[in-house]
Amino acid sequence: MPSAGPTDALRETPRFAVFIDRNSGGRLFKALIERAGIEVHLHDDHFSHKTEDPDWLAQLGESGWLLVSGDNDVTRQPLFLHQLSHSKAHVFVMLALNGACPEGKAGCIAQAHARMCELAARTAPPALWRIGKDGVARAFDFRATLERMKRGRKI
Questions:
Q1: How far apart are CA 53 and CA 82, in angstroms?
Q2: Which of 6-20, 64-78, 122-136, 140-154 shows the lowest per-residue confidence on average (mean pLDDT)?
Q3: Which of 34, 67, 116, 142 would disulfide-bridge 91, Cβ 3.0–4.6 Å?
Q4: Banded model confidence at residue 29, pLDDT cuts 50, 70, 90
Q5: Average pLDDT of the segment spanning 31-51
Q6: What is the pLDDT of residues 49-62, one digit of tens each?
Q7: Which residues contact 47 (CB under 8 A, 6 or more apart)?
């Protein structure tokens, strides 16, 4: 029996929908991503604009959607990291989203989507990655960061 080739492995990787946080895009952005064949959910379609990140993060993890954000500040927010640690969320902070036009943002997500799906499929949640402007995904040890914050601030 022949061994599975690289294309067989790609077919086995599930395609996850993406959830775009409230600061990263709007309707045009969503439509551009959908044109790439990716299911997209916008924050404001499911939550109030005033809903705080930690409040919707747990629900997001239950949905199985991948959180895509351009907000690197979440990696320094104790409340967000604490809520992430109690969720089933896969979070991808894409540094190239900041300052990009909707077309550029959508292109970044479309280009990274297969890799994000691969990482989410093989990694138990919760998990957080940063995807640099170079397109490389790097795991972010949010638990260690949260522990350092607790020791330093007595959270």
A1: 11
A2: 6-20
A3: 67
A4: confident
A5: 91
A6: 888 777 788 888 88
A7: 22, 55, 56, 59
